[in-house]
Amino acid sequence: MKLLDTSIIIYAxxxxxxxxxxxxxxxARLVNGSDEYGVDTELLQEVLHVYGLRGxxxxxxxxxxxxxxxxxxxxxxxxEEMSLARQLFEQYPVLSSRDAIHIAVVFTQRxxxxxxxxxxxxxxxxxxxxxxxxxTSEAP
Length: 140
Description:
- The chain has 140 residues and is an alpha/beta fold.
- It has one domain (2-138): 5'-nuclease (Rossmann fold).
- The protein contains seven helices and four strands.
- It has a four-stranded parallel β-sheet.
- Helix 2 crosses helix 7, helix 3 (41-53) runs antiparallel to helix 4 and helix 5 (79-91) packs across helix 6.
- It is globular, with a radius of gyration of 14 Å.
- The protein starts with a strand and ends with a helix.
């Protein structure tokens, strides 16, 4: 299973951009029942945060509700993930604190990697990064 980064959800609902269509295609797979992907509770928090900051609270709630339906058991963020995230945040200055949390989940849950549009994840040793452009061009 691959962890989805919040960027996938945001780009899928955004304006035309090079990642717009690939992210929409990934989200369509989720809606059709793909079990290749998972989310963590940090993604859910970020969705509320990003759309809330933009003054789009209704979109925040709709997106959250849809995601929690698709992923009724998101990966939790526990003290273990937070301790590892703190280490990653210190070790890799290119990572945001939220990105460090996502990577900690990838490690603690022994996931295949992370699907993201964010190049910063590529700096972390031992993490496989899946670009949605590549994933959607390879898939049927």
